[in-house]
Amino acid sequence: MTQETSGGDPGPLAGIRILEVGTMLAGPYATMLLADLGAEVTKIEPAGGEISRGVGPSYFASLNRNKLSLCLDLNSDAGQHRLGELVAESHALLVNLKSSAIRRLGLTYEQLRRFNERIVCVAITGFGLHGGDDPAFDYVVQASTGIAALTGDPEGPPTLPGYSSADNSTGMCAALGLLAKIISGSGGQVDVSLRDVMLSQLNYHASAYLNNGVEPQRRHNGAHSYYVPAQLFPTADGHLALFITHDGFWKSFAAEAGIGGFETMTERVARRDEVLGVVTAVLATDTAAGWERRLRPLGVPAAAVRTLPEALDAAPEAVVMAGDFRLVGSPIQISGYLPDYRPPPRLCPSPNRDR
């Protein structure tokens, strides 16, 4: 089942014009979030198209719906002239390329302010606009910032999640920075790096190390550092995520599970192994789905581990139509506004805008 959408409300970002020189994921995802909210996003592509077109139609659609397309050779005088014209009538330009390429192509505020003093220029790079050109693909950044070292079984090798968390997170931060600068009313440069975003997402781990010298460690079943029990547990059928963050949750869970004692978080943390042993034994008496049905009405945070197809089947309202593509819609729900999802733009053979 998919959600059919219809136009009408132009959206909260109607009238905001954004240029994108983006490739693959982080940049295109950032501008797609803004386009979903009504911004007019023009994707500037080389003659052969942005490289993610070659990955496949559904991949490209998942990151580029609701946009316009314009083919420009930014290495040419004509392309640079047209870029200046576009900048003069736009609110922002977002680019994700190597930092040297951003400067070489004249895609910084210092190079574009002559066309528009109020233009907001957002640069997404691996290590900052002045941080060099070392390769900074998503998985590389996860490895270099400590994410991979924290993920996986303690006795096993480090591992990576099955999706591009660094690119997606950086795209969201870039969209936030872009809007913040537009709201400020003045033009300028916004610099967002994958490295900095992922370090910031290690917030409490980083704080514990910086202030108390506590190094984060991998724990079995993805156990939380501070809360017990808060991790995955095997059950009679499937795995259950249980996340007990305060004593009220524990009281409700323990009553349903028939567990006595361990009434405070301080005690549960101090007796972690004992608590986990008791909880593991109890959860093995029912299935993951059974525990979810029992605990949800009590307000206890618990969920059976599902596959992506199962999760999509359980949330049909999250799926929308954009032309012929079934996609996950915008995660930002705004009262009174329903996006009119349009398919990704066709590749323009000439320097004209095209839907």
From TrEMBL:
Q: Which UniProt keywords apply?
A: Transferase
Highest taxon of the source? Bacteria
Pfam family membership, one: CoA_transf_3
Q: Name one GO molecular function term.
A: CoA-transferase activity
Q: Does the keyword Lipid biosynthesis apply?
A: no
Supply the PANTHER family for this chain.
SUCCINATE--HYDROXYMETHYLGLUTARATE COA-TRANSFERASE (PTHR48207)
What is this protein's name?
CoA transferase
Q: Which organism is it from?
A: Mycobacterium heidelbergense
